[in-house]
Design goal:
Largest sheet: 7 strands, mixed
Oligomer: single chain
Mean pLDDT: 93
Number of strands: 35
CATH topology of the largest domain: Methylamine Dehydrogenase, Chain H
Number of domains: 2
Strand content: over 45%
CATH architecture of the largest domain: 7 Propeller
Number of helices: 2
Low-confidence stretches: none
Amino acid sequence: MTESPRIIVQSDWEEALRGSNSSAWVSYRRPGDAAVHGELHSRGFSNTSSDACVSGSPGFTVDKASGQELRISYSGASACTYTFTPPTVAFSTVHKPKTKVQCLDVTAGGLAVSSDSQCKTYVWTTGVGEVRRELVGHHGDVYTCRFFPSGVVILTGGSDMRLKIWAAETGQCAATLVGHTAGILDSAVVDRGRNVVSCGRDGTIRLWDCGSQSCIRTFTDIGGIVNSCALQDTPPDIALGIPHNPPSEKECGTEGKLVLAACENGHLRGYGLASKECVLDVGCESAVNCVSWLSDVRVVCGTEDGHFYSWDIRNTNHPMHHHKYNRGSILSCMPYRAGAVLSTSDGSCCLLDQNLSCNVELTGSDCDPVYGVAQDNRYVYTACRDGIIRKYRNIDVAASH
C-alpha cells in the first residue's frame, strides 16, 4: 500500500487569481507530516494565456497558470506536481441550491439525468443545462439513474424499493419493477436492455426482465448491504461457474458476464450472471462504496476509509494497486481513458493515469462531497452536495504531467 503527498488549492482559484494583485491559498500535505501552507500571488491572467503570471510561496512553483489550468510543483522532501482544472460551466439551476445531487448519467447525444435529495429527478441538456422533463413517480430518494444504451430510455431506483423505466423524451414511466425489500442503491443494464440488474440495502442483487416486469433471479447471502454493482463481459477463459438450472427464457445476454458487488461488510464479490455462483471474493480495509470495470479483466473499487484497489480478476491473490488517499471516503469511481476518475467525501475529484497515479484534480467543490461522476465523448460531469453539477473538459491525463 502506498500513500502519496498531495497539493491542495483553493476551490475557486480560477476566479480568485484572475485579477491583478490577487491571491489564493495552497497547501502541501504528506502522510505523517504537518501540512505546509502557502499562498499564490497573481498579476492576472486571461483564459487564453498559458504564460504563468502567478507565483507561489517558498517551496511552491507555478509551472502554468491560465483560466483553464493551474500546474503547481512542490520542492520539499517528497517533491510532487499537481494540475488543477476548473469546470467549464457549473449548472446551478438544474437542482435547487444546497440540494445534494445524488446520482447522474449523460449520453453522447446531449441528454443527462440526475436526482437530488428532495426526491426530484430531471432530464436536462448537457449543452446549457436546460431541464426538459421531471420524472415523477418515485416516493423517496432516487439513488441510481442511468441511460440504456439507446440513450432514449432511463432506469432509476431508490429508497421506495422500486426500479422504474422511463421514456426520456416524454418523461412517462413505461415499467415498474417490484421485489427489493429495502432501498435500491445501484443498477446496471444488460446488453441493450431487455434485462437489467439492481442491488441494494436488502443485501441482494437481482436480475430483471423488463418486458414482463419480473425478477428472473435473486443473488442472496452476499454479506449485507450491497452499495454498488458493475457488469462486464469477460474473456472466454474466465471461469464463471456452472448454472444448476437451465436459463430462463426471459434471460437475454447473461452468458459470459460477471457482476461485481461492492459490499458494506468490506468485501468485493463477483458472481457469474448466468450461473449465480460466487467466483470472486476479496477483502478490503472497510466498507466498499463503489466498483467499476476498467477493462474486461481489470476492476477498481474504493472504500469508506479512503482505500483504493485495482484487481486483475485472473489473479486476486494480491491487488495490482492498493493506495490510501487522505481525502475521506471514496464515493464513486469511473473508467477514464486508460485510467479512472475518483470522487470523494472531501470534495476532491481526481483523474488517475494508466498507472493509477493521481496528478490531476477537478476543482470547484468547496469541501462538499462529490457523489457521482459521468462522461460523454467530450466532457466529465460531477454531482455534488452543494446542488451544482459541474462540467469539465476532457483531459489527456498522461499529457498533463
